[in-house]
UniProtKB/TrEMBL annotation:
Protein's organism: Marinifilum caeruleilacunae
Database matches in SUPFAM superfamilies: Bet v1-like
Annotated protein name in UniProt: Polyketide cyclase
Record keyword Transmembrane present: yes
Source organism superkingdom: Bacteria
Classification of source organism: Bacteria, Pseudomonadati, Bacteroidota, Bacteroidia, Marinilabiliales
Length: 174
């Protein structure tokens, strides 16, 4: 019985230490400059329907079911998707818009695991067109923090953002 209690105690200590060491927040972002006016870029990025055209995740499941609700491109509009194991199930809702400069969404993932994150696009005019920053940020709580010790969000999501931004650039510049 003592051995069992020592084992349980050790497990609790290890889990506690991992939780303590784990990052409690995350933020991933990537930037690109597109040769297009900021108004055109902003209008396109506000459209959840247009986002589906260049989304790096859309090609992971051509059979993914996507529905749209509300007035596309306005606060309160949202999209719901359900797909294979690569794309899972979730919703994205526009929660904040600052014309020609900022779009914020709430991403609610249901499968393969439940989580909520904040997605955003920041835009600024530059000499060659418009600089876009695409980002994702959020908080991690127990037990998700245990996975965050071993998972680098930047390594996991960053390449998808790079691919998506490259696809967006090709789309918006044609």
């Amino acid at each position: 019985m003592k051995t069992f209690l020592y084992i349980i105690g050790a497990i609790v200590l290890i889990v506690g230490a991992l939780h303590f060491m784990a990052p409690k927040t995350y933020q991933v972002d990537r930037k690109i400059v597109v040769n297009q006016e900021i108004e055109t870029v902003f209008k396109s990025l506000c459209s959840l329907k247009e986002q589906q055209i260049w989304s790096p995740w859309a090609e992971l499941d051509p059979e993914m079911k996507v529905t749209y609700n509300g007035t596309d491109g306005s606060v309160g509009s949202f999209t719901y998707w359900i797909g294979n194991k690569d794309v899972g199930e979730g919703e994205q809702e526009i929660i904040k818009i600052e014309p020609n400069s900022y779009i914020e969404t709430e991403l609610r993932f249901m499968k393969p695991f439940e989580s909520t994150s904040t997605g955003y696009f920041e835009l600024k005019p530059v000499a060659d067109g418009t600089e876009i920053t695409w980002g994702l940020k959020g908080d991690s709580s127990f037990p998700t923090t245990l996975f965050m010790v071993f998972m680098d969000m930047d390594e996991n999501v960053g390449p998808d953002f790079e691919k998506g931004l490259a696809k967006f650039k090709a789309y918006i510049e044609k």
